[in-house]
Amino acid sequence: MAGNRIEYIVWVMEKEADVPPVLQEGTAEFVQPDWYVGEEMPAPLVSSETNGTDHITYYYKEAGADDSAYTTTVPNKAGKYTAKAVFAATQLYQEVVKTADFEILEKVIPDETMPVISGVADGQTYYGDQTVTVTDENLRSVTINGEAAAISDNRAEVTLKPSDNVYKIIAEDMAGNRIEYTVEVLETWVRDGITSDGKKNLRAARIYKLGGGKWTVAGDKTVYQGGRTFYVKNGGAYDFQKK
To answer: Tens digits of per-residue pLDDT, 61-90?
Structure first.
């Protein structure tokens, strides 16, 4: 009961709320090298002194496509593309996004061999139907007088019918090797001689032959002795009759 007394003074401080750190802007470099169809994609060239290169996600889209087209699937067809590299944020730096354009190229195989045209020879004249075959390991196109021929398994086959016009055959392969033939295909009677009645288309400045017997031509009273050749000055349709 001596009245001894002790007193404490305690200050209670309110704890400040946790404030997230302000991340700084990071920097990075990104290049995606080109490659050829059928080859593996070369490793991207990346660097970042702020974010590092251990946590990067890559996305791809066709060049010019909307950003919504980005996908993680690596393209494998020839064409132009854009790649996006996303460098993950760190404790100090923000996420960094970089893009790079690249191209997947068609592989060009050296080819100096022209397509092969068989069945006819350039500059020659033939009689009756002629079958022409064009082949090449990488056949691109075949045209006959400008009209495209069907190609299947690097091969085209066409039948040339007798015609008053010459045939121009042009074949080209994928490497640009080009070959051109010009041939003439006539009716067999032009070679063997006229042996049956009827109209025949004769060309000017050519020599033809009549079969055996005697012949007349419509509009001409002359009787021609067969087995002989004759010269045509004016081309056109002539109606032959055997007497």
So the answer is: 999 999 999 999 999 999 999 999 999 999
The residue type of 233 is: K
In whole angstroms, what is the distance from residue 99 CA to residue 97 CA?
7
Tokens (6 digits) for 200: 């025949």
**pLDDT digit string, tens, across residues 149-162:** 999 999 999 999 99
Helix (H/G/I), strand (E/B), else coil: 16: coil
* Pairwise CA distance, residues 202 & 235, whole Å: 5
Burial class of residue 2 in the structure, from the number of CB atoms within 10 Å of its CB (0-12 exposed, 13-18 middle, 19+ buried): exposed
State how far the Cα of 234 lies from the Cα of 131, in Å rounded to an integer: 31
Domain annotation for the chain: domains and CATH numbers: 29-105 (2.60.40.10), 116-186 (2.60.40), 189-242 (no CATH)
Of the candidates 144, 161, 142, which has an alpha carbon nearest to the alpha carbon of residue 152? 142
Residue 189 host element (H or E)? helix 188-192
Going by the DSSP 8-state scheme, the letter that residue 210 receives in this structure is B
Query: What span, in angstroms and rounded, lies between the C-alpha atoms of 177 and 46?
Result: 42
Q: Give me 33's structure tokens.
A: 């090298």
